[in-house]
Hints:
By secondary structure, this protein is of the alpha/beta class. The protein has a single domain (about 1-250), classed as Alpha-Beta Barrel (TIM Barrel), CATH 3.20.20. It has nine helices and eight strands. Strands 1-2-3-4-5-6-7-8 form an eight-stranded parallel beta sheet. Strand 7 (about 170), helix 7 and strand 8 form a beta-alpha-beta unit. The structure holds zinc ion (ZN).
Amino acid sequence: MFDIGANLTSSRFSDDLDGVLSDSLAAGVEKICITSSNLEDVKNAKKITERYENTYYSVGFHPHNAKDFKVEHLKDIAAHFNDPKAICLGEMGLDFNRNFSSKEEQILCFESQLDLADSIIKPLFLHQRDAHREFLDILDNYKFNQNQIVHCFTGNLFELEDYLKRDFYIGITGWVCDLKRGKELRECIKHIPEDKLLIETDSPYLSPRKKIRRNEPKFLIDVAAEIALLRKETKESIMNSSFENSLNFFNLHR
Ligand SMILES: [Zn+2]
């Protein structure tokens, strides 16, 4: 399996990252893309990928951190892509759910990174919460050749339709295991084309196991199993197809 989004730079992993990564490997997670959310995070993610094989990282500014973003940061972001382990631009987007940064700051931060995307030619790792319309209005001003994913998709069928029309990949987390909060998402699962579905944990958040608070990449299997149940497919087929899709999305080889 490929965990396409794990926040392994979180302080909640600082004491036992070795164990977390060996456990995830034992649980069948062959590759992980570490999500970064600002430039400090990028440095830490890069360090982790230097120590562990088959780990990669994203480079970008999360909308929560948009208040710290400056246009001068774009050249630092671009410079990181000399590293073959830096495999996507993001995570970036809009999050009007908690508004840790103002809407104006978020839009500037998002658009600035999208302006850069043309010259980077790496896939785009996108985040959207409670900002569907504004998010699409911005993206529709651009025409990209690279792949794009809406990671941690938690929306409804109408939103899914909007993304599929634009040929986006869809990332599914343990949100799908939550019968109540994930109700609408669960209805969407069988409508995602097989070649567009990717899986992720978003560790340490969104644990698929009620009694375990800290999520880890080793629980990715729960996400695959739940999707399999909803699509009436085998767990193995979801594991295989999502892995292949991830390689395609990131333009990686085995
Ligand atoms: Zn996100």
